[in-house]
# Entry
Amino acid sequence: MRRQEKADRIGEILEELYPNPPVPLDHTDPYTLLVAVALSAQTTDKKVNEVTPALFEAAGTPEKMAALDPEEILGYIKTVGLAPTKAKNLWLMANQILDAGGEIIGDWEFLESLAGVGHKTASVVMGGVFGVPAFAVDTHIHRLAARWGLSNGTTVERTEKDLKAVFPKETWSDRHLQIIYFGREYCPAKRHDLTACPICSWAATKKRIAEESR
# Structure
């Protein structure tokens, strides 16, 4: 099966399973989404959602976040991965936003210039808030794209390029969320029986199935 045919069929399955996928991180506005996504690096969404209610109650705006010091911020997020670095970045980010006028704007260069914000985080905000087609690729999507034969890229950047080439532009922002939800429900990283998976069973190569069954 050609790569494009695979992508078309996968898209149909994902649309049927998750027609309107919500962002799995709790937030109320562009700023709190930006903070939540930045916190989610190397941390589960569940853990982020556990710490953000108290954090956002104390510092749900750039002004309030900047008014705290990094040690105070760390007190709210200490259970997430890389917490000390993230606390410093949240404080720096808040000050950068204030210096730029105090608003989150839908501009790639602006978002990616913020402390702790990489391309993946910017992609989630651009797609989720500003409706700009963006395909946020994390390690989970990178893994599934390889399993399904949609990309053989060795980096998330290459995988992003490959996925953008086979999925329609208007689906990108939803598609990355659909793949995340599918991975959680049907396609985990470890102890996964590819032959029983609704997508891997037909999309993965025999070589891939054999490799992961060892």
